[in-house]
Amino acid sequence: MKYKRILLKLSGEALMGNKGFGIDQVRLTEYAQEIKSIYDAGCEVAIVIGGGNIFRGIQAEKGGMDRVHGDYMGMLATVINSMAIQSALEVLGVQTRLQSAIKMEQICEPFIRRKAVRHLEKGRVVIFGAGTGNPYFTTDTAATLRAIEIEANVILKGTRVDGIYTADPEKDPAATKYETISFEEVYDKGLEVMDMTAFTLCKENSLPIIVFDMNKKGNLKNLVEGQKIGTLVEM
Ligand code: GTP
After folding, report:
1. Which of 125, 85, 81, 78 is closest to 102 using CA atoms?
2. Most exposed of 38, 97, 127, 157 (fewest Cβ within 10 Å)?
3. Residue 123 Cα, ligand 1 centroid: separation in angstroms?
4. 106 CA closest ligand 1 atom index
5. By three-state DSSP, how is residue 168 classified?
């Protein structure tokens, strides 16, 4: 196995599957099966999931809502998704612990770094909910921060495209994919991998990022085993 400890970042939207809103049970189970495949192989797995399928702070601001208020609602949305993933994993017999950056004692543990690491060592999948617990930060930033804190080998950004392209492949058919790219090149070419806060945090801590297609069966397992899948961003 190439990566012993990973942080998997999933988007909330991905959980919608073909639905327009909320959580698609079929997609949720598929994701849980993919995660179980690397868990069974002995990989230590931490997960951060977005909340965009339920609530988006930035869009709410456009509708007149206070940004900070909207961001907190978005953080709560990530906890709902985290609970969904937790349940889907446990149905498959995967041990999990959910930790939230905002205290919700009745539902999950508070985020405690040392406890999270211990859970990983004991073979539990650890899910981090409620982002960083602060407004103005994305779940990509939360994922990066947690990945650094738990000393993950890599952050795996599961998306619906299979890597980073020279241009948006959904708009420009001539776009080509990078197998690897440096942090500098991403800055120079103005490519969008993560928001700048998250991306810079990765760079400053030499945390490699792999962007890959989470919807393709087997991708996650093959990636963790060292196959070249998606695009690797490294120093
Ligand atoms: P170890 O003692 O290291 O083996 O970890 P553990 O998670 O098994 O022990 P602990 O006694 O901390 O937790 C037992 C169960 O209670 C686990 O399912 C935890 O997720 C859960 N738990 C622990 N702390 C909290 C909390 O503050 N709130 C909620 N809702 N659950 C918690």
Report:
1. 78
2. 97
3. 14
4. 30
5. coil
How far, in Å, CA of 45 to CA of 5, rounded?
6
Ligand 1 centroid–CA 109 distance in Å is: 7
- For the stretch 163-220, pLDDT in tens is 999 988 888 999 999 999 999 999 999 999 999 999 999 999 999 999 999 999 999 9
Task: Output the pTM of the full model.
Answer: 0.96
User: Ligand 1 centre and the CA of 131: distance in Å?
Assistant: 20
Q: Which residue's alpha carbon is nearest to atom 23 within ligand 1?
A: 109
Q: Are residues 139 and 78 in contact, defined by beta-carbon separation less than 8 angstroms?
A: yes
pLDDT for position 119: 98
97 lines ligand 1 (CB under 6 A): yes
The count of C-alpha atoms lying within 13 angstroms of the C-alpha of 213, restricted to the half-sphere facing its C-beta, is 13
Question: CA–CA distance from 25 to each of 36, 72, 82, 179 (Å)?
Answer: 16, 25, 14, 32
Backbone dihedral angles phi then psi of residue 142, each to the nearest 5 degrees: -60, -45
Q: Which of 78, 98, 87, 68 is nearest to 13 (CA)?
A: 78
Q: Which CATH number fits domain 5-234: 3.40.50.2300, 3.40.1160.10, 3.40.50.670, 1.50.10.20?
A: 3.40.1160.10
Q: How far apart are CA 176 and CA 164, in angstroms?
A: 8
